[in-house]
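Good morning,

Attaching, inline, the C-alpha cells for the sequence recovery test we're adding to the shared suite. The designed sequence is right after.
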C-alpha cells in the first residue's frame, strides 16, 4: 500500500474565509469559558474613552490580557479602574476579530484584598488633599442653635432613631430626613445627590432649607463604608454651603468624608450632641447671665448716681460762671463807638487816595500802553506767520524731492522686475520646448514599439512566412477540414493576395509523422544508460 502524506490530504481540507474562521474561534472561546473571574494588575488605563467605554489590560508576572468595560457597566461600578490597582475582574471571555486577539469584557471589579482597598484609599486621599479639599480654611463654623437639621441616612436603621432620640433629650429641633442607601451599588450617588439636594433648596421655600447637615451611618467593615470614600461624595461634602457633620461608623472608623466635613463625630449620637446644646443647661445659663447682667446694671446705676451728686456739688453757681463774660461784654460795648469812627476814617482816606489816582491823563497813558502792547502782539503774529509759511514751504519742497526719488526708484524697480520676469518666461519657454520634444520622442518610441508588437501579433506576419488563411462563404475562418463540404466556395488568403477555390470533397492523406530517434538503453522509463557502449 503506498504511503499517503499529510501534504496529499491538505487539498481535501474545507476552505474557510477569514470572517468565518474568526467567528468560529469566537464561539469556541465563549462557549468554553463563558463567565470568568480574573485576578491581575490594571495596566495601560488612561481614563474612559470619549465614547464612555474603558480600555486597559490585566497583567501578572507572566501574562497579559486585554480588557474592555462598556459604558453602562462603567457607570454602575463601585470601584473604578485605576492604573496599577490589583483587582478581581468578573466578565465574559471573547475575541476581537479586528486584531485577532482575545479579551475579557468586564462587568464588575473588586479590589484584590484589604491591602488593595487601603492602597486605593490612601492614593485617593493624597489626590484630594493635593487639591486642598481637606484644608482647615475651608471648614465652616457650626450654628449654635439650628432651626432645621437635615439628616442624610437610611430611614430604616437604628441611626436615625438614635439621632432623633438624642435631639429630643437635648433640644428638640425640626429634622428633615433624606433617605438614602448607605452601602452597596448606587449608595455613593444617592448620598451625594442628598447633600446637593439640601443645598439646592431655596431659602424660605415650601421645604425649609436646613441650617445644619448630618451624614450618618452605623459601623461596619471598610467594604460596607466604602460609599463614603467615593470621590463624588467627598466633592459634594466639600462643595456644601451648609455646615456638615460626618458621623460614619464608630470612633475607630475613618472615611474620606471625615476629612472634608466641617466637624467629625465619632458616632451618630455624638453628632446629635454637637448639633444642639442641652436645653435645661442653656436655660439655667441664660437665667444666671440675666441675674448677673441685672446686678451689674444696678451697681452701675448706683455708681453713676453717686458720681453725679459729687460733680453737682463741685460745679460753680450761675452768677460765678457769667461774671467774667459780662465784664468782657461791657468793655467791648464801651470800645465799639470809637472803633467804628476810626474804621470809617481809614476807609475815607483810602477812597480819597484812589479817587486822586483816577485822572484822564492816567487813563490816556494806560490806553496808549495797551495800544503799543497790541501792536507788538500783531508784529509778533505776522513774523510767526511768515516763519510758519517758510517752514511749510521747506517741508513741501523736501517732500516733493522725496516723492520724485521714490517715483524714479519705483520705475526702475518695475523695469528690473519686468526684465527678471521676461528672463524667467524665456527660461520657462525653453524648458517647455525641451519637455515637449522629450514627450514627443517618448510617445514616438511608444508608438513604434506598439507598431512592432502589432506586427508581431498580426496574422499577416504568419501569412508572410508561407502559411494561408482559409475562409468560408460567410468570410469566417475555417479551423478544421470537417467544416468543408463538397462544392463549398473557399477564399484562400496568402501573404500577397486572395485566391478563390471550390472544394471537391476528396480528403487528402495526412502527412506522415516525423520519426523520432530511439533512445539507447531499454529501461522502463525510456532513459538510456551512460555506461552503454
Amino acid at each position: 500500500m503506498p504511503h499517503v502524506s499529510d501534504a496529499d490530504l491538505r487539498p481535501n481540507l474545507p476552505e474557510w474565509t477569514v470572517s468565518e474562521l474568526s467567528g468560529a474561534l469566537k464561539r469556541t472561546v465563549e462557549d468554553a469559558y463563558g463567565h470568568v473571574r480574573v485576578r491581575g494588575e490594571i495596566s495601560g488605563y488612561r481614563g474612559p474613552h470619549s465614547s464612555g467605554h474603558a480600555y486597559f489590560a490585566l497583567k501578572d508576572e507572566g501574562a497579559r490580557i486585554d480588557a474592555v468595560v462598556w459604558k453602562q457597566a462603567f457607570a454602575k461600578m463601585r470601584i473604578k479602574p485605576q492604573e496599577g490597582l490589583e483587582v478581581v475582574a468578573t466578565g465574559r471571555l471573547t475575541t476581537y476579530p479586528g486584531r485577532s486577539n482575545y479579551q475579557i469584557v468586564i462587568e464588575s471589579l473588586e479590589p484584590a484584598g484589604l491591602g488593595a482597598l487601603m492602597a486605593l484609599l490612601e492614593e485617593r486621599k493624597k489626590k484630594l488633599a493635593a487639591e486642598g479639599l481637606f484644608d482647615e480654611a475651608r471648614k465652616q463654623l457650626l450654628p449654635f442653635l439650628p432651626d432645621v437639621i437635615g439628616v442624610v441616612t437610611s430611614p430604616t436603621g437604628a441611626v436615625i432613631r438614635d439621632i432623633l432620640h438624642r435631639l429630643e433629650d437635648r433640644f428638640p429641633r425640626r429634622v428633615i430626613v433624606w433617605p438614602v442607601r448607605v452601602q452597596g451599588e448606587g449608595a455613593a450617588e444617592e448620598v451625594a445627590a442628598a447633600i446637593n439636594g439640601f443645598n439646592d433648596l431655596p431659602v424660605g421655600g415650601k421645604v425649609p432649607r436646613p441650617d445644619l447637615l448630618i451624614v450618618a451611618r452605623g459601623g461596619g467593615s471598610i467594604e460596607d463604608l466604602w460609599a463614603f470614600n467615593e470621590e463624588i461624595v467627598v466633592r459634594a461634602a466639600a462643595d456644601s454651603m451648609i455646615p456638615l457633620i460626618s458621623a460614619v461608623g464608630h470612633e475607630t472608623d475613618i472615611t474620606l468624608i471625615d476629612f472634608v466635613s466641617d466637624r467629625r463625630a465619632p458616632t451618630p449620637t455624638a453628632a446629635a450632641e454637637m448639633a444642639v446644646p442641652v436645653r435645661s443647661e442653656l436655660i439655667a445659663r441664660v437665667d444666671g447671665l440675666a441675674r448677673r447682667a441685672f446686678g451689674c446694671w444696678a451697681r452701675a446705676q448706683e455708681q453713676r448716681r453717686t458720681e453725679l451728686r459729687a460733680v453737682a456739688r463741685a460745679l460753680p453757681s450761675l452768677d460765678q460762671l457769667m461774671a467774667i463774660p459780662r465784664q468782657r461784654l461791657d468793655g467791648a460795648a464801651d470800645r465799639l463807638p470809637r472803633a467804628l469812627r476810626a474804621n470809617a476814617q481809614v476807609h475815607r482816606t483810602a477812597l480819597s487816595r484812589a479817587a486822586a489816582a483816577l485822572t484822564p491823563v492816567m487813563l490816556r497813558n494806560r490806553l496808549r500802553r495797551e495800544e503799543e502792547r497790541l501792536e507788538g502782539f500783531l508784529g509778533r503774529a505776522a513774523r510767526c506767520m511768515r516763519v510758519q509759511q517758510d517752514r511749510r514751504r521747506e517741508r513741501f519742497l523736501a517732500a516733493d524731492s522725496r516723492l520724485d526719488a521714490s517715483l524714479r526708484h519705483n520705475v526702475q524697480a518695475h523695469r528690473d522686475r519686468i526684465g527678471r520676469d521676461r528672463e524667467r518666461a524665456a527660461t520657462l519657454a525653453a524648458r517647455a520646448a525641451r519637455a515637449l520634444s522629450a514627450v514627443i520622442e517618448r510617445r514616438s518610441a511608444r508608438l513604434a514599439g506598439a507598431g512592432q508588437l502589432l506586427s508581431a501579433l498580426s496574422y499577416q506576419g504568419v501569412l508572410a512566412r508561407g502559411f494561408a488563411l482559409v475562409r468560408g462563404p460567410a468570410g469566417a475562418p475555417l479551423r478544421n477540414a470537417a467544416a468543408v463540404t463538397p462544392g463549398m466556395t473557399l477564399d484562400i488568403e496568402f501573404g500577397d493576395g486572395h485566391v478563390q477555390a471550390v472544394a471537391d470533397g476528396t480528403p487528402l492523406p495526412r502527412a506522415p509523422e516525423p520519426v523520432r530517434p530511439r533512445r539507447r538503453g531499454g529501461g522502463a522509463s525510456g532513459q538510456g544508460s551512460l555506461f552503454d557502449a
